[in-house]
Amino acid sequence: MKVTFLGTGTSQGVPVIACNCKVCKSNDKRDIRLRSSVLIEVGGITLVIDSGPDFRQQMLRADVKSLDGILFTHEHKDHIAGLDDVRAFNWVNKRHVDVYAESRVIKALKNEFGYAFAENPYPGVPKIGLNTITEEPFLVKGIKVIPIRGKHMHLPVLGYRIGDFTYLTDFNYIFNSELEKVKGSKVLVINGVRKEPHVSHYCLPEAIEVIQKANPDKGYVTHISHQLGLYSEEDTLLPENIHLAYDELELNI
User: Fold this and answer.
1) Which residues contact 90 (CB under 8 A, 6 or more apart)?
2) Angle, CA 252 vertex, CA 238 and CA 237 arms, to 5°
3) pLDDT tens-place values along the chain, 253 residues long
4) What phi and psi values does residue 150 have, to the nearest 5 degrees?
5) Closest listed residue to residue 142, CA positions, set 8, 248, 16, 42
6) Which domains can be identified in the chain, with CATH numbers?
7) DSSP per-residue codes, 20-84
8) DSSP letters of 89-141?
């Protein structure tokens, strides 16, 4: 399995518009963060988790030529806004793109991209196959996907485990029963927006605590804001098996 971090930033990305902090002015490419998303290539299948506003740029940068499915964590704009750009894959791959989401999220997609689901759509709209999922495991072209339930303040969200890889973003709470599903992962990715507590996201100390409870071989922190600090300074302070993720980081699991 190959995992590529397409984006590791928060809803505003890094640099933040009009910000003059040292992180936003950094020349280190590891401090430049598109909105959070990850590319998973396993068994000849290509999957993406979330298609935020930077989806087009991410697909071009990672040179993705074929897409078998998009798994959605929740309906916030920084995780769904780029869905229209699957039109390119419709044209090149000559097929629709399947998306997998809870019924609540599918309703949001229909509202946001209503023209794509109209009874008589005009030519050129994105062709999207809607697949409603629950907390039960499901298959994407033979690849087993295990949903992991968490909370994003009051909003239910889903993370996903595929083989030895688990991806959790926009969590600020995980049930003990769900954490059991994570245990045994070789790699766990989890959001850690900043060092200080946050109302709807894990902060860095909380993310580290969850990683240590799950006890993967390696843990990576994503959904990082400019408030966390410079990569070159902060990554060295983490426990030995935990790192800050950064855009275009590739993992082979």
Assistant:
1) 96, 97, 126, 127
2) 5
3) 999 999 999 999 999 999 999 999 999 999 999 999 999 999 999 999 999 999 999 999 999 999 999 999 999 999 999 999 999 999 999 999 999 999 999 999 999 999 999 988 888 999 999 999 999 999 999 999 999 999 999 999 999 999 999 999 999 999 999 999 999 999 999 999 999 999 999 999 999 999 999 999 999 999 999 999 999 999 999 999 999 999 999 999 9
4) -145, 180
5) 42
6) 2-252 (3.60.15.10)
7) -STTTT---GGG-BPBSEEEEEETTEEEEE---TTHHHHHHHTT-----EEE-S---HHHHTTGG
8) HHHHHTS-EEEEE-HHHHHHHHHHTGGGG-SSPPTT---EEEEE--SS-EEET
The amino acid present at 75, given as its one-letter code, is: E
Contacts of residue 7, Cβ cutoff 8 Å, sequence gap at least 6: 13, 33, 34, 35, 36, 37, 52, 54, 58, 247
188 bridge partner residues:
166, 219
Residue 47 CB contacts under 8 Å (≥ 6 apart), including other chains: 39, 40, 41, 67, 68, 69, 70, 71, 140, 143, 162
The amino acid present at 141, given as its one-letter code, is K
| DSSP-based three-state secondary structure for 245 | coil
CA distances from 81 to 55, 57, 110 (A): 8, 13, 12
Closest CA to 133 of 92, 98, 86: 98
Q: Which helix (H) or strand (E) holds 213?
A: helix 204-214
Which token pair is 243? 């790192």
Mapping DSSP to helix (H, G, I), strand (E, B) and coil, where does residue 85 land? helix
